[in-house]
Amino acid sequence: MSKRKLNRRQQWRIAKIQQEREARARKKEQTLSQAEEEGDLGAEQTGLVIANYGTQVLVESEAENQEGSELRQRCHVRSNIDTLVTGDRVAWRPATGESTGGLGVVGARLQRHSELQRPDRYGDMKTVAANIDRILIVIAPYPEPFANAIDRYLVAAETTGIQPLLLLNKIDLIDDTNRAHLEELLRPYPDLGYPVLQLSTKTGEGLEQLLDTLAQGTSVFVGQSGVGKSSLINGLLPGTDARIGELSEATGKGTHTTTAAELFHLPSGGDLIDSPGIREFGLWHMSEQELIEGFAEFRPFIGHCRFRDCRHQSEPGCAIQEALERGDISQRRMDSYLHVRNSLENE
Ligand code: GDP
Ligand code: ZN
Asked: How does pLDDT run across 204-234, given as a tens digit for each residue?
């Protein structure tokens, strides 16, 4: 078959898919208008997206009802709205009658103050959660943490503009063999604007302080496998029924279960957004520009080197090296920067 023929067939197929998509959208809009005419939708109000089921979202009313519990409803999403993700705030109308099939309607997405993104399987960045206030980077004595790995998480957090914190879990495992190393490792961070919290999920030591930190806004936990994220999150959420756990059923496919994020209210205050994909945050590729800008204390010196293509190693007139000599940049963070840059080049 010639190349041209194939292309024409592909074009035809794409056009057909597009037509079907438009027909579906028209049909949905018709159902929605009908519901509005029949008065089966309540007044417009603001809500929070708890989970995204693909074509529908689970929305929670921000207005508490008389029993003090939140109204939650699955909703259609008007076709003029860009993708909704967990954590989005929306303007919506709850279903009050039958004609909508009990489905509410989301009419608009409110502005996001932050976005967490990750690459899809084609490498394009996709937003997976919105309106997050803090990223807790979990580390532990075991598996052994490395400075450059911690810094890489911090850089990834810096690209989002969301406040990162370090959470040292498993402090019950600290003893004379690892104490000095951990203190040395974590020493620079508070001065760089990254608070360090300590916790033992096992003994509960440090839990009060963590709960205080989580009590305001929305948090996510990230970090390498084995540091105790699952144990910690399960401990924070009472009973497994806190989880919606029906994402795959809703879509009829298993694929969404691995990436769909869910929002949880913590009993002690604050919200948590979690998904396996979110826990992997920071592990994907970043550009050299993102990398150097993610070292917050390097920023005042970026662009001030004598050579535009300076590698910040042994070039004369390097503003980064001069900052290092003056002590405005620590050797530890410089080593880390060069190490990560090297590994990015080899990825
Ligand atoms: P994840 O991969 O980050 O989700 O880590 P897991 O929650 O699966 O935990 C990995 C291992 O660390 C499990 O065997 C947990 O029981 C253990 N673990 C988690 N938190 C603590 C802790 O505070 N202290 C100790 N000693 N072990 C912990
Ligand atoms: Zn330089």
From this structure: 999 999 999 999 999 999 999 999 999 999 9
For atom 10 of ligand 1, which residue has the closest CA? 226
Beta carbons of 159 and 290 less than 8 angstroms apart: yes
Instruction: State the distance from the centre of ligand 2 to the C-alpha of 310, rounded, in angstroms.
Output: 5
Residue partners of 62: CB distance under 8 A and separation at least 6: 45, 46, 47, 48, 89
Atom of ligand 1 nearest to the CA of 231: 7
> 288-346 has which fold?
Ribonucleotide Reductase Protein R1; domain 1 (1.10.40)
For the chain, which ranges sit under pLDDT 50?
1-2, 241-242, 244-258
Amino acid letter, 85: V
pLDDT value at residue 284? 82
The number of the ligand nearest the C-alpha atom of 321 reads 2
**Architecture of the CATH domain 9-109:** Beta Barrel (2.40)
Ligand nearest to the backbone CA of 312: 2
For residue 313, give the nearest of 341, 282, 338 by alpha carbon: 338
The pTM of the full predicted model, rounded to 2 decimals, is 0.86
The pLDDT of residue 9 is 74
CA–CA dist 47, 60 (Å, integer): 5
Predicted local confidence at residue 6, as pLDDT: 64
Minimal-distance CA residue to ligand 1 atom 17: 228
pLDDT of residue 4: 55
Spacing, Cα 228 to ligand 1 middle (Å): 3
Ligand 1 neighbourhood includes 227 CB (under 6 angstroms) = yes
Where exactly are the structural domains of the chain?
9-109, 131-279, 288-346
Report CA(199)–ligand 1 centroid distance (Å).
Answer: 12
Model pLDDT, residue 155: 96
Classify domain 131-279 at the CATH topology level: Rossmann fold (3.40.50)
Answer yes or no: is the C-beta of 222 below 6 A from any ligand 1 atom: no
Report whether residue 224 contacts ligand 1, using a CB cutoff of 6 Å: no
Q: Which residues contact 84 (CB under 8 A, 6 or more apart)?
A: 49, 52, 57, 77, 90, 106, 109
Q: Distance, CA 198 to ligand 1 centroid (Å)? A: 14
Which residues, listed in sequence order, are joined to residue 45 by a DSSP beta bridge?
A: 92
